[in-house]
Design brief:
This protein is an alpha/beta fold. The protein contains 15 helices and 27 strands.
């Protein structure tokens, strides 16, 4: 199995973007290619067909390669959950919780073993692997425990690309400093440099490129200009860098919870030209958007406490009372209920926590993690649409009977399997466990049409493709950009 590695001088240099594009480029050339990231730290996750949990970015890279995501593509996933701890996912399954200090002792050898076994498994089915690093490969205080960067490159003897984000400033120092801090055997694997996110006149950079090549002895494979193309983000820091659109026909606010997870759910909404999507800090003014979304959370109770502590909970209750629409997904769904119960004290020191009291449900947090893909059909806002998505949650939500009206619950199932989601009588409060719900084009447009009709706007056509097809267009655009501005031949000929 031929191999290529992509590392960056910093976080957010563009490693995921470059890796994704290379997977599509190689697939176009006829290679049977697979992505790989030995260890990922992210709260955006995807569930494979085998029921394993991996980073969402690796799922996107698999789709770019034209293959189905599988756990071997991201054998270690760390999901931060507060108090300087992370949930550890090995081979797609949660195996424990650890601090950074304890991780090396408890999981380093296990982690390296699952990484090498995953690579051996992939080698039996694919003829090219494109590996992505994490952060920087030159963090000298962490190199001895780094499972993701040059340890993998050396294991595979993989020619490696070093990506630098020139928009941040200091690009030349970042490249030279990174190379200087690598061991000689690691530096020898760096076969090319990519300068990413360049703004301005290209000719003004020529002298810098020439100097960099002469000084390092490593070719600059290309300079990629800044492009405003929406691409899957790995963590919530990326949300801070996204430009805000002005008001549109429909304005939707997503609460930026302290432990926001799976905000990739909202990429299909962001791609809708008539929708403005805004991520709102809990301390900011809510205003009166057409809808508010409470997203998934790695720690439901902690983020629920944050909602109450910032008075956002009162703002949400007032917003609904004034006629607003709220949708909660996964942890956000759990927060909408009357109470979140934690009998095993898995997320806090108390046995129960008050919810937002906007849906007549309670959630019991449990140690068992539900991870599975789902297929069902819609009931609301229109019946009969086929729906696909996936669940990732710890906790079971059940309806609490209304004691004043014992013969009715005042809610309805969103889907044929009502355990996946509910909506109240006047359709002002929606809750569901289904990640990827907006990927379903007909359902997404029907929900948006519900919001549009409330404002007296005409309905959008619902006979559209799912976001999966739209994402293919985006992946082709990414590959086209890299193919135009980067020469990969020095690595492919190694």
């Amino acid at each position: 199995m031929k191999a290529m590695m992509v590392v960056g001088t910093t976080s957010h240099a563009g490693k995921s973007f470059i890796t994704t594009a290379i997977c599509r480029i190689l697939a176009r050339q006829g290679w049977h290619v697979t992505p790989f990231k030995g260890q990922n730290m992210a709260l955006n996750a995807y569930v494979t067909t085998s029921g394993g949990e991996i980073g969402h970015a690796q799922a996107v890279q698999a789709w770019a390669a034209g293959i189905n995501p599988r756990v071997e593509m991201n054998p270690i996933l760390l999901k931060p959950q507060g108090n300087m701890t992370s949930q550890v996912i090995l081979g797609g399954k949660a195996v424990g919780v650890t601090t950074a200090v304890d991780y090396y002792e408890k999981y380093f050898e296990k982690g390296w073993n699952v990484i090498t076994q995953s690579l051996k498994s992939l080698a039996t089915e694919y003829d090219f692997v494109v590996c992505e690093g994490a952060g920087s490969p030159a963090e000298i205080n962490l190199k001895h425990r780094d499972l993701t960067n040059m340890r993998v490159a050396k294991y595979l003897n993989a020619p490696t690309i070093l990506v630098v984000d020139i928009d941040r400033g200091g690009a030349f120092a970042h490249v030279v400093g990174t190379l200087q801090l690598l061991e000689e055997s690691e530096r020898a694997l760096i076969k090319g440099i990519i300068i990413n996110k360049f703004r301005g006149q290209r000719s003004l950079l020529d002298s810098g490129v020439e100097w960099l090549e002469n000084y390092t002895g490593i070719p600059v494979l290309g300079v990629i200009p800044w492009r405003d193309i929406s691409f899957s983000a790995e963590d919530s820091l990326d949300l801070l860098e996204r430009p805000r659109r002005g008001e549109n026909e429909i304005n939707i606010t997503v609460l930026r919870l302290p432990h926001i997870a799976n905000f990739t759910d909202f990429e299909p909404l962001d791609a809708e030209k008539t929708v403005s999507l805004t991520y709102l800090d809990l301390k900011d003014n809510l205003g009166y958007p057409d809808a508010v979304i409470i997203p998934g959370s790695k720690t439901t109770i902690s983020d629920l406490i944050a909602l109450h502590g910032t008075s956002m909970s009162k703002k949400l209750q007032d917003y609904v009372a004034a006629g607003g629409v709220i949708l909660g997904i996964c942890g956000g769904f759990q927060m909408l209920g009357k109470m979140v119960l934690d009998p095993e004290q898995l997320e806090g020191n108390n046995l129960s926590y008050p919810g937002l009291n906007l849906l007549p449900v309670e959630t019991v947090i449990s140690a068992e993690k539900i991870i599975r893909q789902r297929q069902t059909c819609s009931v609301y806002p229109h019946a009969g649409f086929p729906i696909t998505g996936y669940e990732i949650h710890q906790g079971i939500t059940h309806i609490v009977e209304n004691t004043t009206q014992p013969n009715r619950t005042n809610i309805h199932g969103l889907f044929e399997d009502s355990s996946l989601g509910i909506v109240n009588d006047n359709q002002s409060v929606w809750g569901c466990y289904l990640h990827g719900i907006f990927d379903n084009g007909a359902w997404r447009r029907t929900w948006l049409n519900y919001l549009r009709n409330r404002r007296g706007l005409s309905s959008l056509p619902t006979g559209i493709t799912n976001y999966r097809e739209q994402r293919e267009v985006i992946l082709d655009k990414l590959a086209d950009i890299v193919d135009e501005f980067v020469d990969l031949s020095p690595l492919l000929n190694k």
